[in-house]
Amino acid sequence: MTRSHFPGILAMAAVVVASNILVQFLFGQWLTWGAFTYPVAFLVTDVMNRVYGKGPARRVVLAGFVVGVICSLIGTQIMGEFGPLVTLRIAIGSGLAFLTAQLLDISVFSALRGGKWWRAPLASTLVGSSVDTAIFFSVAFSGALSWIEPANDVSWAGEMLPLLGSGPVAPLWVSLALADWMVKLALALLALIPFRLIVKRLTAVPTL
Predict the structure, then answer these.
(1) What is the mean pLDDT of residues 39-62?
(2) What span, in angstroms and rounded, lies between the C-alpha atoms of 59 and 56?
(3) What are the C-alpha distances in Å from 201 to residues 28, 75, 81, 196, 204?
């Protein structure tokens, strides 16, 4: 680990901490503010991968995972209106989703590294984001996985409602997951701009 990698670690840690805080605040009916900060983690990973390679990118992801675990442990000790802010299912879902999706992002990015500049970050983020959403919401809220934490009543998430308020009837957690996924897809496209600018800045050859 070189000194040049520390900004990536600090950026990832900041994203994880901010997202763990902002996820407590609702944005509309289907989202939290954390949905808008968390996808930045993929941008950090992709920049590290492009500039320094997959090894440093993995170390940044591992650092983010450790910070996430610490945030979850703290959250289990903070009592909200309906119990701990972070339950066992949320902690497991969050950690598993983050680590799996970010490592998958690195693999996809590395496989497409030699193509057009936008292909690797876009494809890897789309794949990683989709897997992240699927794992987290399934583990945290699906009734089929209630055995993970039987004492945690998440029946509210299984309430059958129109999808996103107007579609076919589906469990509430599916609407939450779909809204989260759509935000991730939109931000994956927008993130191409800062990705291009940051990579250019970091890889620019200094002139004498």
Answers:
(1) 96
(2) 5
(3) 36, 37, 46, 9, 5
Please tell me the distance from the alpha carbon of residue 140 to that of residue 157, in angstroms, as a whole number: 9
| Full-model pTM | 0.92
Q: How far apart are the first and last CA of the chain?
A: 28
| pLDDT over 90, % of the chain | 81
Tokens of 24: 């407590």
Task: Please say whether the beta carbons of 199 and 191 come within 8 A.
Answer: no
* pLDDT value, residue 50: 96
Residue 2: exposure state from Cβ atoms within 10 A (0-12, 13-18, ≥19): exposed
Q: Using CB atoms within 10 Å of the CB of residue 17, give its burial: 0 to 12 exposed, 13 to 18 middle, 19+ buried.
A: middle
Rounded Cα gap, residues 152 and 155, in angstroms? 9
Per residue in 151-174, pLDDT tens?
A: 888 889 999 999 999 989 999 999
